[in-house]
Task: structure prediction
Amino acid sequence: MDLVTPRNVHYNAFYKRSFAYYTMKERIPVILTQLIDNLVRNKDKIISEYGQGAGEELKIVIGEISKIKYEVQTNKPLQEIVSSAPDIKIYNDYLAKQATDDGWPTYFNCVWLLAECYIYRKLYDIFEKTNTLKDFDLFRYQKELALIDSIDSIIFMCKSLSDMLLNEKALYPVKDMFIHLLKLNLWGNRQDLSITNGVVNHVTGDPMSNLENLESYIISDHSEDIWSAISDPAATSQIVDIVLDNAAYELYFDFCLADYLLKNNLASKVRFYVKNMPWFISDAMTRDVNWQIKQLRKHSNKYVSLFGQQWDKHFKDGSWTVEVEDFWTYPLDYSYMKCLDNKLYRKLAEAKLIIFKGDLNYRKLFGERNWDPITPIEKALQGFHPSKLCTLRTVKCDIVCGLRDGLVEELEAKNAQWSYKGDYGMIQFCEKVEQ
Ligand SMILES: O=P(O)(O)OC[C@H]1O[C@](O)(CO)[C@@H](O)[C@@H]1O
Result:
C-alpha cells in the first residue's frame, strides 16, 4: 500500500513509504547478491580452509541463498524452519502467531523485525545444515576487511588516546573525556556493513578532530544522565554491560570506552555481549572479538599494539568478558525478554549500566513501532527495565522516540530521508524503573 506506517503500528514492508519496504525491495536483494558473489570469489580460499567437500557444498549453499532472494522478490510466505537448533522453536512459534486467515505472513506483509531477522537466521541455517561449512562465517571476509580499511583512523585515535589511556595523564577532566568517548563511540556506529549493503568503506582521518563538527547531528543527547549513572558513588554494582553491534571500527571504540571505564574506576568489570551467529553482516561474534584483539596486539604501530596488549590482558584477567546469549538473535523485541529469557534479564539487572549499541538494538528496545517521536523513552521500552540503560545509535531507520516536539518535522523539511543513512546520532538514557 502506498501509505506511511500508521502511528503506533509495527513497521512492516506492507507500507510502501517506510524503510521496511525499501529494505525488502532494494537492500535485501542486493545484500544477498553480494553474498553470493563473495562466496564465488572466495571459493578457493574457502576450499583450502574447509576441505574439498566444501566446494560441492558451496554450490548447494549458493542455490539456497538464491532461493531466499527469489522468495523475497516474489513476496512468498515465510516458512517454518526445519531444524533442531534450540532457537528455531522461538522462530517457528512466533511465525505461527503472525498467521492470518490468508496463511503465513509474507516478506512484504510481516512485522519488519521478524522478516529481516528470519532472513539472517535462514542464511545461518543453510550453513548449519552442511557437513563442512557449519563453522564458516559467511560475513567473515567483509568484517576483516572493514577493520583493515579503518586502520588509518584507528592509528590516529590510538595516538590521541595514548596519553589519556596508557600514561594516565589527564588531557581532559574524567567526565569530559568520558563524554567524548561516548560520542566517538556513537559515530563508530556509522560504519555498519548492512546499511552500505555489504560494501566496506575506507575510514580515514582523526576521529577526535571531527567530534565538534558532528555535535549538531546529535538529535538527542543524554550524555549528562549517563555520566551521572556511571559515576554514581551510591551504585552497588561495578559491572557495565555492553550489548555490542558491529565488529571492526565500532568495536574498536567499544574497547576504548570499556578501557576508560576500568582505568577511571567507573567499572570493575565490562561484559561484552556478542551474537551467536553471523548477523546483519557486520555484527560482532566471539571470533571477531578475538581476531580483532590479535590484529591490534600484533600491529606494527606501537600505539595500536600497546592498546591491543592491554585489552588482551583485560580479557585474560577476566575484567572483560565475552558473553554469548541466544536472545539477541531472536526475532523479538526486548519486551519479551523478561518472560522468555528471565535468566538473561536477571543477568542484565546485575549491571550498573547497560549500553545498547546501534540501530537494530534500538529497534528491538523500542518495539519497532511508529511511535510519536515525542513518546517518552520509558513508555516506548514497554516494560523492559532490567537496569539503568542507554543507547548509542546512529539513525538508520524511521523509528525514534524521546525527541523534542517539532524536531522530526524540522529534519524532514531539510531531507525527507533524513533517518535512512546514519547521518544523525542519538544518545539516550533511561533510569531503572521498578516494576
Ligand atoms: O548495525 P546497526 O546499527 O544495528 O544497523 C543495522 C540496521 O540498520 C538497518 O540497516 C536499518 O535499520 C537495518 O537493516 C539494520 O537493522
Notes: The mean pLDDT is 93.
